[in-house]
Design a protein that fits this description.
Layout (H helix, E strand, L loop, with lengths): L1 H16 L4 H11 L4 H9 L9 H17 L7 H14 L2 H17 L3 H15 L5 H17 L3 H17 L3 H17 L3 H14 L3 H17 L3 H11 L8 H15 L3 H11 L6 H18 L2 H22 L4 H45 L1 H15 L1 H19 L1 H6 L2 H16 L4 H11 L3 H8 L5 H11 L4 H8 L3 H14 L5 H13 L2
Length: about 525
């Protein structure tokens, strides 16, 4: 009673002020959004665009409107409103608000069944608030991603996402959303054909809350659970009960088409037709439409009305084509792996940039000191010039010393090499290169090549993250001017395979051919 009275006071103050400024209306809407989303939505919908004088108010209006619509189970508007909020919060570095905006933009893509774009935005929103106290929003993000994984039949990942969502809703002390996640987890077990385990979760949701929406969803899922387990009598009892409860999203259409399919299987064709047609009158998806048209086509065929059968089969095929376009989208879990990989690469790039900046700072300081010392002493000037020359020629000297080491090691084994047969000679060659280049210790080999050839591996990784160790070894051997016969022995491959290996490297580095590849390697090794 007190809470309702407080809402009345807010609205009464607005009426008294008459021409109250939109920032105050936004503030009141923001304050009452959690406790009275209907009143908040009413306030927001009565604000005209011309009243939103500042970009800050327009951006806040966008996320408040989407939140109010979501909490009242209303349809979300076009993305132009939320796009403005995203751009504003990007530029002002307000992570919490940007995460909300990303989430609702993702919801629009999810509703449109553009799961690839939705996943990308969910992950961005998740990154922004992962270590914050935005438990409710994190719960919603993981829940939506679980829905996508479930649709894509990635049940293991869907189960993980729903469990994470449940964890965050519990932290947010939201019993209703927690109950919904129990239903979602049960649904994953049902889709995995574990009907007993699914029923445990559905029943748990029923006992946790008296919320009519939750109870309707739980009864619906229990009915579908019995339906999938071919227990049609029990399925009819629970699904008919669920029709008496309110619903969210496509739930009512789902209840109708499943009932229609049960009645079709029980040869009660009029009921099957009735509930199939009823499903179209409520929010649905291409999948629900497809299943309803399938039931109608089969039912009319059984009744002998082949004209209607043909009509419904055509519509069924149209829906099937639409569903297929959705199903061929890249799986959400794959996109998440790519997103995480990109993030890791970006962090590595930042590290490289920091390292280069540090090196540039050192070089700048060295030049400054060089100039100071030059003024003080001519003799020091000569010495510093020698140091500079040594730095410039460092890569050449390192390369020559490494080649010399290989030659000296080969010379030390010349006696045994002459006495050996072909197989033993190959083994000696491998031992020589392993000893000189540390081929048996990748860390030491990588460090040696970076020192010798001007950060060769860092540059190659920068050009292509797909380049593998065998390809990196080949690049190093080519720069060391190792004979082709020795390269074949070291890489344990044939001449044709070596040619293919070079071609793969050329493709990964986006080069036009082997000549450009060889020049590219030379440029790296001699770059100052």
């Amino acid at each position: 009673m007190l809470y309702k009275f407080r809402i009345f006071i807010y609205l009464f103050l607005l009426l008294l002020t008459g021409c109250v400024t939109s920032p105050n209306e936004l503030k009141i809407a923001e304050q009452i959004l959690e406790t009275s989303p209907d009143s908040a939505l009413h306030l927001l919908q009565n604000i005209k665009n011309t009243q939103l004088k500042s970009d800050e108010n327009r951006a806040l209006y966008g996320i408040l409107l989407f939140q109010a619509l979501d909490k009242t189970n209303s349809s979300l508007p076009a993305d132009s409103v939320i796009n403005f909020s995203i751009n504003y919060y990007k530029n002002t570095f307000k992570n919490n608000e940007l995460a909300i905006a990303y989430y609702y933009k993702a919801r629009l893509y999810k509703i449109a069944q553009r799961f690839d774009k939705a996943t990308e935005l969910y992950l961005k929103a998740q990154d922004l608030i992962q270590n914050s106290n935005q438990n409710y929003l994190l719960g919603k993000i993981y829940s939506d991603m679980g829905d996508i994984c479930s649709f894509q039949k990635d049940y293991k990942e869907a189960l993980l996402k729903f469990q994470q969502s449940k964890f965050y809703f519990q932290k947010a002390n939201d019993l209703i959303e927690t109950s919904y996640k129990l239903i979602d987890i049960g649904r994953v077990w049902r889709l995995s054909k574990n009907f007993k385990k699914a029923f445990v979760y559905y029943n748990s949701a029923l006992t946790q809350t008296v919320d009519s929406f939750v109870n309707g969803a739980a009864l619906q899922e229990i009915g579908i659970n019995y339906y999938n387990d071919s227990k049609y009598d029990s399925a009819l009892i629970y699904l008919n009960k669920s029709l008496l409860y309110p619903f969210k999203g496509t739930n009512y259409a789902i209840r109708c088409y499943v009932l229609a399919d049960i009645y079709y299987r029980l040869n009660r064709y009029e009921s099957a037709i009735y509930y199939s047609n009823l499903s179209f009158k409520y929010p649905n998806t291409y999948i629900i439409q497809r299943e309803s048209f399938r039931i109608l086509a089969n039912t009319e065929y059984k009744k002998g009305d082949f004209k209607k059968t043909e009509l419904y089969m055509g519509k069924y095929q149209d829906c099937t084509d639409s569903v297929r376009k959705i199903e061929i989208q890249t799986k959400s879990s794959v996109l998440e792996d790519i997103y995480i990989t990109k993030g890791t690469v970006q962090k590595s790039k930042k590290y490289v940039v920091a390292l280069i900046s540090f090196i540039l700072l050192i070089i700048s300081l060295s030049i400054f000191i060089f100039l100071k010392l030059r003024k003080r002493s001519k003799s020091k000037d000569i010495q510093l010039k020698n140091v500079e020359i040594k730095l410039i020629n460092k890569q050449v000297l390192l390369k020559e010393s490494l080649i010399k080491k290989i030659e000296e090691t080969r010379l030390s084994k010349s006696t045994s090499y002459k006495k050996a047969d072909i197989r033993e000679r190959e083994q000696i060659d491998i031992e020589i290169y392993t000893f000189c280049l540390h081929l048996d210790d990748w860390g030491r080999f990588e460090k040696l090549m970076n020192q010798t050839f001007n950060n060769l591996f860092i540059v190659l990784y920068g050009k292509s993250t797909d380049i593998n160790r065998k390809e990196l070894i080949l690049c190093s051997l080519l720069l060391l001017e190792v004979p082709t016969t020795d390269i074949l022995i070291i890489l344990d491959c044939q001449l044709a395979s070596l040619y293919k290996l070079r071609q793969r490297i050329v493709q990964k580095l986006n080069l036009s051919g082997t000549k450009e590849f060889e020049q590219f390697l030379q440029d790296i090794s001699t770059e100052k």
